[in-house]
Each structure stands twice: as C-alpha cells, then as structure tokens.
C-alpha cells in the first residue's frame, strides 16, 4: 500500500478539485483557502516531484495565455494516485469512525 | 515574460526581492517557481493587499521554496553519492593489486607526512599534572653560541626574589644514586634533589605517605626520601608499610616518607626524590651545582610577561652569578622544552623542523603522484565503461566523483593505517629490549620523558584527514579530470577501438625514472648500513680477544647526594673515587670466577672511542705532512693484561706512566701500519693536533698492541688507535671488562654482591656481554636499514606497478600496429622491442641516474672500497632489473599472442 503524508494528501485533493487547471499557484491558493495554511511554492513542487517519481501524478509544461507567457507546470492525478488518496481517506475515516463525538467532548472539557 | 509587478502599480523593492529569489532558488525547477512567485504577487495585488504585505509574502514564499529545493537536492545528492560509493568500492575490489599498491604507498606516505607534527606534539606536551600547562622552565641561553647554558644553584637563588608572574620557583638537580634497602642488594636509580616548592608547584599528591614538606629542608632535619612507584614495586614489592623504613641512597641512610603515583617521574625519568640542601662553600656561597629551574605561572600571567620580568631580574644579577654578564639571556619556556638545546620557541618554528616537514611532505607527494599514475592507468583501462556511461547521460562531474570516491576510499584506509602506525610504532620501538641491549637498564621507553604520551591527538587526526583529502585530490581527482576532459575522452574511446589515441605524456615516464633512481639511491643507503653491521661483526671476530668471554660493566663511582658532599674538600671526593676504583678491581681480580679484569674510559667494540687528528715527530711541518684520523681511549694500567692481550712490541702501561702529566702512549697495529709503515715505532713521538695553534704535548710511543675493536660499527676508515694511561677514579662512570670462566651473564648476581661489599656508593649502571656492547648503535643501524628496505619495497612496488600499467596500456593502444608488424613478418624479438623498449629505457635511465647517488651515499656512510661497494649494490640493482622485467613480461607476452588477422579486423 502506498503511504501518503498529510501534506501529500492535501496536494492531491487540490489536484482533484482543480481538474485540468492544477498547477503550482492554483494548488497553493487552494490549500491556503481551504486550510488557512501558508505553504511555499517550493515545498509544493518538491512534494509533487517525489509523487511524480512514485507514479502518483503526471505533469506537463504549458505557457500561460497566448505567446511567450509564464511557464506553468500542470499536474494530473494518475490511477495509482487516485487509489492511494482514496485508501488514505478510507483509513482515516475507519480510524475516526464513532470517535468524533467523543473527541469533541474531550476538547470541550479541556476548554472548560 | 510579462512583468506586471514591475509596472507603475508594482510594490517598490520587488526588483531586489526578485534578484534575491533568483539567487536562492536554483536548479531545474527555478524558472517555473520564479514565474509563480511573480504570479502570486500579482494576484495578491489584485486582491488589494498592501505593498508591504505583498513583499513579505513574496519573501516568505521565496525563502520557504529555496529551503525546500535545497533540502530535496541534498536528499538526491546523498542517494547519488551512496551509489557512487558502492560503485567505487566495487571497482576497488576488482583491481586488488593496484589498490594494494596504492593503499600501501599512501599508508607509508601519510604517516611519514604526519610524523614531524605528531612527534613534535609528543615532545612538547604539557606535564600531565593539574594545571601542567602553566608550568614553565627557566634557563640560560647564549645568543652567541646559540645554545642553552646550564643553570646553577646560584642563578636559582638570584631569581627567588618574589617574582609577580610566577607563584613560586623551584629547582631540581638530577643524578644517579645507588639505592639500597634493608631487604638487601642495591641498584642504581635516577633521582632528583629538589628544592622546597617543587611538589607545591607540581600539585601532585603522594600515593602513600606524603611528599616533601618545608621541615624536611631544614639543615638539622633527618634525611628523607620519596620513592617513585616503579622503585617501590621493584624494590619493595609494593609493600604499603615502606613509609617509615630506611633506605640507603649513595650510602647515606634516608627515611622513606612517601611513594608517588605511577607515571610520575619528575623531571624526566627520575624515580626518587630528596631535599636539595647542599653544604655551603668556604666563602659561604652555595656550590656551583647544575640544576633545572622551573615555576608555575601566576593566575593571569603570560609566558611573555614572565620572560620580561625574569630578563629584568636576571640582567641585574647575571654578572655576579654566571660571570658571563649580559651576554646570557634568560628564557621562560614550556617545561618540556627545558631539556632541548634549541631556542625556546615551538619545535614547529625551528628551521630544521621546516626542512624535516618539507622532506616528509615530499615523500607523501611522491606517493601521491605515483598513486595518481596508477589511478590514471586504471581509468585508461576503463575507457569503454566511461564512454558508455557518458553516452547514457552521466555527467563528467558524476564520473570524476566516482573516481574521487575510489581514491577517497583508498586514502581513508591509508589514513586509518597511517594513524594506527603513528600511534603504535613509537611505543613499540621504544619498548624493545633487544637481546643484550641495556641488560640492566630496561627498555628504551623507561628512558623517555614521563610526559610522552604516544596516543593520537585530535590535531594529528585532523591533520591526517586533511592530508588524506589532499592525497585523494592529488592522486584521484586531478588524473580523473584530465582523463575525462573532452579531448582526452575521445582519445580513450579511440584507444578502446584499437587505434592510436591518447598517450600518458612524459610525466609518468619521468616518474618511473625518478622512482627507480630513488630506489637505487636508497639501496646505497641500506647497503651501506647493512655493510657496516657486517663489518662490525667481522671486526669483532677478527679481534685479538673473543668478546663472548667478557662481561662489560659500567659503574658509577660516586652516587652520593649533594647534601652529603662537603664542597669545602673536593679532593676528598676524588680520593674516595680512586679508592673505590682500586678496591673494585682488587675484589674482582680476587674472585675465583674471574680470569682477568680491565678498566678504562671505554672498552673494545664501544662506538664512542674519542676521535682526533695526530701527527708524527720528527717530520717537517709542511702541507704534505700527513695527519692521521685516529681513535683513542684512556685505560688504567693492567688493561691489556686483564683482557689477556700480549703487547706486540714495547711494554704495557704501568704505574710509571701515571706520575705527573702522562707523556706515553700505546698504539695499535693499524696505527703502526698506517703511520709508521710497519717500522718499529717504539720511542717515536706523536701528538694530538686539536687546535692547530696549540697542539697537544708530544707523547712517546712505548708499546704496540693488536687491534681491539676501536671502530665500533666499522663506518669509518681505520687509520689506527691510540691508548693513553688513566689514573684511578679519573672517570665516572667507569667501564670494566671482566673475563669470566663461564657465560658472562651468569656472573651478574656475583657482581652485585661484590659491588655491595666494596662500597654501597658504587652503582651498577649496566652489565652485558662484551660482544653485545655495540647493540645499542647496532639497533639504530638495524632500524635505519629496515627503514631503507621498507622505502625500497614501497618505491619498487610503485615503480613496478606503474611499469606494468604503462606497458599494458601501450600494448592495448598499439594492438593494430603490432598486428600489422606481425603480418609483415616481424619476429618475436622485434615485437618485444616494440613493446618493452620504452619501459626498459626508463628503468635503465633510473639506474644510471641513481648509481652515482648510491655510490656517494655508500661512501659517506661506510668505508668499503669500490669493489666491495659494487658487490653490495649490484645484487640489489639486478633484483630491481629482474622485477622490472617481470612487470613488463605479462603485457609483452600478451602482445606476442596478438593474431594479425584479429588485430587488423578490429
């Protein structure tokens, strides 16, 4: 089974959400909007590079707009990536099943 | 590329941030990332963020990205390096011969390169006591003579006037003392008479009892002594009740008050300590005893401040104390330097050290260049592999990196072996107790200063790693860079295809010539030292006596502590020494186990017979008047009779020769032959030249004796020897040869008893068979011969492996040419000439260049004639040529097996 870290899961979910417009800036903004976490473009690229080596995603370089626009590296989820992400999500859900209410009570108790 | 952030609405300072981002973010992802930084800044602007916030977000993004990219690069780099390391190791294993030769060369070169610094570190270490780095020695220095001048007790008293830079100052006088105990027997030990502050300065506590206290130094205080741990264990079997017992030191009873811990042997190798409290002279001044002065720097004081203070202090009193006025300087040095004749600076600052270090590094450089050549040859042999890897996309950096790993592995192993050798060889060599060597003194290590610690220091390890890295660069990276340069790589590929391609160039050939020349030169050195050893053995066998029948004894005639000597009557001490000398000879002669006794300042086969020029009388003082370089010895009457030697002509010495100033000499047969042409020399006169303006008095030849081993190890021309008469007690230590009825060593227990019976002050320094007295110098010669042989072996291995590599390379390069020659009918001999002529020429040139050097080195060490020198050198040279031919034989045979059709087809 392919293991995915939390950051890798966030990136893969962003790719799913962005469809064919999944490139660095869009992924970064997606994560920032949904999680409130500021991540650097470099860390997204290195994580994507590692996942590409593992066959979870594929990439292609395109120019933005007409003519010599900015280079963009667009990413696409591969079947192995889809399976790994789904598996990671299932794992998390099965672990959390029935525990969320208890966890909420613990937090409430801790907050007083 | 559009650059909206540069427009009128772009935040100021973005140009600088963009430049910083380009600087930080490197690698293939950089263009995409830099474009994204700009796009994000642009979007932030569209969202209405303030310029400051945009700049902050841009900077944070750039910094975070740079960090992530660099981390990833390091992760990838390590993976590649590990792969390179594995490949490198595999290739190292595939060529074990070349690897072994390379590692051996570096394993010799690296420790040789490190040795000067390592040994200087050992010699200069601080005393191993609490705050030992603050202990300083004070000594006199003569700038005119560039040497240290012995310090005196008077100087010590003049410096004890409350210096502010030293807490306290103390002095120690070293000597040899005969130590006897109630358990019987006595033995000579090195000891020190110390002043009151000594143990306070050293801050060392006693293992048992106490050290010396102030009360022990009072004139009326009883005599006390502190023993060293080795003496306590050897003489008292580690008995803890030794404190309070009496011992006899130089015949004077002392009460033991303490035992010092193991390892403490102050000031150098001393093992017993007593208070220094000499009786004053008739003029009320302390006697002019030679002492070592030392002290502990006060808190915050520096050596320079102490030096300035003591120089001022000394300037005021130098004239009165030393009589040499301001011509003498006072030096404040680290304690270990107090015993060096050199200046007070660190050893590493000495010009001699610079030369030594340079020579040592030159040896390492030679090893590196040779290993580089082997690496070069190995890379050449892998031309196809390198070409394939290049074609598959391997960068030059990657290939060079892999070769660097190979050399790095070898250098790392060599550093490890080298450091092991450095840490183990000095203690191993000094722990040697060669057969017969210092029978009664113990191993050499016991005579090494107590602060010597042969363990590796961090500085040595660090320097070793640096030298290893430099070696890897010199021997690996530079040849690899050269070999993988574009042009050369094409040549390699062409060479692999069997066509004429790259050549090694002239440097490897020159290196082989230099290697062979050095091997031959070192062969001269090793042959000369070996020849000297053989000659010494032959001399000993040809001597008029059989040295194996004699026990050579060295005794100290006076071992009395200073406090028991009356400086007002020095003649009493001389009389006592003469009495002891005569009593000892009498006791030995009367012993039933003794057949003869001879005494003198030196014995046959000793290497330290005095050397000097003499001339004959009558004879004109013309320029062509021959001077004779002779050896001389002072001997007590009865010397020749005691040895069992008949006087050939004239008479032996007797009591007449001791009246007043002696004017008689006895010469040996060598001298009679060389100086008198075998004519009767009795009645002729000779004199020592010494200073040409004031030669010595004329001395009349009264006798001639056979040759009795006056030339030690036979490393000089033998013009002859002269014996001078010596009165009783004139020298101490005194040498005595005892002709025993049985094996000489079995007489030693009886000798100890006799010495005790004669006088408990007489101390036995050493006793060993006469045929072994040369062993100490013999040991040094053997070490030098061994070092020479090792160097020869290493250089020969390097030269031979380089020859093999070059010849193999030549054969692989000229396969096609050889095939054509064979097809055209060239015979085997002509093909052999094609392949091996260059290698043979290189070896022959090396031999021709090395022979004159070897000849000169041999002549400067040994005295053999031309025929003997050739006889000593030729076998070694033949061996060298033979090994070289064998090295060329393999590739040459391969060339002879080349099939013309195959070669032409390729």
Please give a quick description of this structure.
The complex is a heterodimer of chains A (112) and B (906). With 112 residues, chain A is α+β, with helices and mostly antiparallel strands.
Strand coverage percent of chain B: 15-25%
User: How big is the Rg of chain A?
Assistant: 17 Å
Total domain units of chain A: 1
Number of domains of chain B: 4
Classify the fold: give the CATH topology of chain A: Arc Repressor Mutant, subunit A
Main CATH class of chain A: Mainly Alpha
| Count of DSSP H/I helices of chain B | 23
Number of DSSP strand runs of chain A: 2
Q: Which structural class is indicated by helix and strand composition of chain A?
A: alpha+beta
Task: Give the strand tally of chain B.
Answer: 23
Percent helix of chain B, as a range, is: 40-55%
How would you portray this structure in words?
The complex is a heterodimer of chains A (112) and B (906). Chain A is of the alpha+beta class and 112 residues long. Chain A has one domain: Arc Repressor Mutant, subunit A (Orthogonal Bundle), CATH 1.10.10. Chain A contains 5 helices and 2 strands. In chain A, strands 1-2 form a two-stranded antiparallel ribbon. The longest helix of chain A is centred in the C-terminal third of the chain and has 18 residues. Chain A is globular. The termini of chain A are far apart. The model of chain A has no long low-confidence stretch (mean pLDDT 88). By secondary structure, chain B is an alpha+beta fold. Chain B has 4 domains: 88 residues; 185 residues, no CATH class; 214 residues, no CATH class; 230 residues, no CATH class. In chain B, helix 3 crosses helix 11, helix 4 runs antiparallel to helix 9 and helix 14 runs antiparallel to helix 22. The longest helix of chain B is centred in the N-terminal third of the chain and has 44 residues. Chain B is flat. Chain B starts with 13 loop residues before the first helix and ends with a helix. The N terminus of chain B is likely disordered.
């Amino acid at each position: 089974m392919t293991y995915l870290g939390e950051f890798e899961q966030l990136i893969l979910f962003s790719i799913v959400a962005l469809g064919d417009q999944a490139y660095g800036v869009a992924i970064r903004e997606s994560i920032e909007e949904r999680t409130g976490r500021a991540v650097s473009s470099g860390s997204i690229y290195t994580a994507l590079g590692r996942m590409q080596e593992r066959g979870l995603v594929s990439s292609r370089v395109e120019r933005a707009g007409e003519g010599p626009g900015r280079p963009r590296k667009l990413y696409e989820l591969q079947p192995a990536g889809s399976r790994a992400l789904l598996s990671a999500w299932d794992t998390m859900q099965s672990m959390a099943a029935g525990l969320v209410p208890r966890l909420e009570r613990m937090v409430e108790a801790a907050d007083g | 590329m559009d650059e909206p952030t540069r427009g009128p609405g772009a935040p100021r300072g973005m140009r600088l941030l963009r430049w910083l981002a380009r600087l930080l973010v490197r690698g293939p992802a950089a263009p995409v990332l830099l474009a994204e930084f700009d796009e994000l800044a642009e979007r932030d602007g569209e969202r209405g963020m303030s310029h400051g916030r945009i700049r902050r977000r841009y900077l944070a993004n750039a910094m975070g990205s740079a960090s992530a990219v660099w981390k990833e690069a390091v992760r990838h780099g390590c993976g590649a390096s590990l792969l390179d390391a594995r490949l490198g190791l595999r290739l190292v294993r595939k060529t074990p011969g070349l690897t072994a030769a390379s590692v051996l060369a570096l394993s010799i070169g690296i420790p040789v390169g490190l040795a000067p610094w390592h040994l200087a570190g050992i010699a200069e270490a601080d005393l191993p006591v609490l705050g030992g780095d603050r202990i300083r020695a004070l000594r006199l220095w003569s700038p005119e003579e560039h040497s240290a001048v012995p310090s005196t007790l008077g100087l010590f008293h003049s410096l004890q006037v409350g210096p502010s830079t030293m807490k306290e100052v103390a002095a120690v006088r070293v000597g040899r003392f005969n130590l006897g105990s109630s358990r019987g027997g006595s033995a000579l030990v090195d000891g020190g008479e110390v002043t009151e502050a000594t143990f306070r300065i050293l801050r060392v506590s006693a293992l048992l009892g106490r050290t010396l206290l102030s009360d022990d130094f009072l004139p009326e205080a009883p005599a006390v002594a502190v023993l060293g741990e080795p003496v306590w264990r050897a003489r008292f079997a580690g008995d803890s009740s030794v404190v309070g017992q009496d011992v006899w030191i130089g015949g004077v009873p002392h009460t033991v008050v303490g035992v010092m811990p193991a390892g403490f042997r102050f000031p150098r190798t001393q093992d017993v300590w007593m208070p220094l409290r000499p009786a004053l002279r008739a003029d009320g001044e302390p006697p002019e005893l030679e002492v070592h002065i030392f002290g502990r720097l006060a808190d915050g004081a520096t050596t320079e401040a102490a030096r300035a203070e003591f120089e001022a202090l000394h300037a005021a009193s130098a004239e009165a104390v030393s009589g040499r006025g301001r011509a003498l300087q006072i030096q404040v040095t680290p304690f270990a330097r107090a015993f060096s004749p050199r200046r007070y600076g660190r050893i590493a600052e000495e010009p001699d050290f610079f030369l030594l270090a340079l020579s040592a590094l030159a040896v390492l450089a030679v090893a590196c260049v040779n290993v580089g050549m082997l690496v070069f040859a190995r890379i050449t042999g892998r031309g196809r592999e390198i070409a394939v890897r290049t074609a598959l996309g391997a960068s030059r950096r990657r290939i060079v990196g892999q070769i660097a790993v190979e050399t790095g592995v070898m250098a790392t192993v060599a550093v490890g072996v080298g450091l092991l050798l450095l840490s183990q060889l000095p203690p191993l060599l000094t722990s040697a107790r060669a057969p017969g060597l210092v029978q009664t003194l113990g191993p050499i290590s016991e005579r090494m200063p107590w602060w010597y610690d042969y363990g590796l220091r961090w500085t040595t390890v660090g320097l070793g790693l640096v030298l290893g890295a430099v070696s890897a660069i010199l021997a690996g990276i530079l040849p690899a860079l050269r070999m993988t340069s574009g042009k050369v790589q094409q040549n390699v590929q062409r060479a692999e295809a069997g066509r004429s391609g790259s050549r090694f160039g002239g440097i490897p050939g020159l290196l082989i010539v230099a290697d062979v020349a050095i091997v031959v030169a070192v062969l001269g050195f090793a042959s000369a030292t070996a020849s000297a050893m053989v000659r010494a053995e032959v001399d000993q066998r040809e001597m008029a006596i059989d040295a194996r029948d004699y026990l050579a004894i060295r005794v100290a005639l006076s071992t009395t502590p200073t406090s028991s000597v009356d400086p007002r009557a020095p003649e009493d001490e001389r009389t006592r020494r003469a009495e002891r000398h005569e009593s000892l000879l009498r006791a030995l002669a009367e012993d039933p186990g003794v057949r003869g006794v001879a005494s003198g300042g030196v014995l046959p086969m000793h290497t330290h017979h005095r050397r000097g020029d003499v001339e004959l009388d009558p004879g004109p003082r013309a320029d062509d008047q021959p001077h004779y370089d002779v050896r001389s010895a002072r001997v007590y009457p009865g010397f020749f009779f005691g040895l069992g030697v008949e006087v050939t002509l004239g008479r032996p010495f007797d009591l007449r020769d001791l009246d007043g100033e002696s004017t008689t000499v006895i010469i040996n047969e060598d001298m009679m032959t060389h100086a008198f042409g075998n004519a009767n020399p009795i009645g002729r006169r000779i004199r020592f030249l010494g200073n040409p303006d004031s030669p010595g008095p004329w001395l009349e030849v009264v006798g001639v004796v056979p040759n009795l081993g006056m030339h030690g190890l036979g490393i000089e021309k033998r013009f002859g020897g002269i014996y001078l008469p010596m009165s009783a007690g004139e020298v101490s230590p005194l040498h005595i040869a005892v002709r025993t009825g049985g094996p000489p060593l079995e007489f030693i227990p009886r000798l100890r008893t006799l010495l005790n019976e004669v006088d408990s002050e007489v101390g036995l320094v050493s006793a060993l068979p006469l045929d072994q007295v040369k062993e100490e110098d013999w040991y040094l010669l053997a070490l030098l011969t061994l070092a020479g042989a090792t160097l020869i072996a290493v250089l020969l291995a390097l030269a031979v492996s380089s020859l093999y590599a070059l010849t193999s390379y030549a054969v692989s390069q000229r396969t096609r040419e050889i095939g054509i020659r064979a097809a055209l009918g060239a015979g085997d001999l002509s093909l052999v000439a094609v392949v091996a002529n260059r290698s043979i020429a290189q070896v022959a040139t090396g031999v021709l260049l090395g022979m004159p050097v070897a000849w000169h080195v041999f002549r400067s060490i040994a005295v053999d004639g031309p025929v003997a020198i050739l006889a000593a050198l030729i076998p070694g040279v033949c061996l060298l040529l033979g090994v070289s031919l064998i090295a060329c034989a393999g590739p040459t045979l391969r060339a002879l097996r080349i099939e013309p059709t195959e070669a032409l087809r390729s």
